[in-house]
Amino acid sequence: MKMGDNLPAVLTVEEAAVALRIGRSAAYEAVRTGDIPHVRIGKLIRIPRVALMEWLGQEKETTREQDETANLKAEGEFVSPNSPSNAKARNVNARAKTPTPISTR
User: Fold this and answer.
1) Strands ordered across the beta sheet of 10-11
2) What pLDDT digit, counting tens, does each position of 45-94 carry?
3) 51: buried, middle or exposed (CB in 10 Å: 19+, 13-18, 0-12)?
4) Are 38 and 30 spatial neighbours (Cβ–Cβ below 8 Å)?
5) DSSP states of 14-75 as a string?
6) CB 3.0-4.6 Å disulfide test: which of 21, 22, 35, 83 passes with 30?
7) Is 11 helix (H, G, I), strand (E, B) or coil?
8) pTM of the model
């Protein structure tokens, strides 16, 4: 049985907070900042179970990516995008994103 199987199709912020094991205020703050996917119906805030479960999956991916980066750093194979060895690549990318001026003649 999966975690979301026993949750209703749409949750209140309080129900989502319980399911996530976070406080009510933290849940409302996450909704306010857009961290938790939600729908507003008038003054009501509802969190679709499917959106919440997908969001948790994305959080899992982010954690996995952070773990992989940490492993690469530990093995000495990770090069930060801001490192001096990547300065040339950064300059090339910066030039590629510069908009072309429009002639006013």
Assistant:
1) 10-11, 44-48, 39-41
2) 999 999 999 988 865 555 566 666 666 666 665 555 555 555 554 454 45
3) middle
4) no
5) HHHHHHHT--HHHHHHHHHTT-S--EEETTEEEEEHHHHHHHHHHHHHHHHHHHHHHHHHHH
6) 35
7) strand
8) 0.53
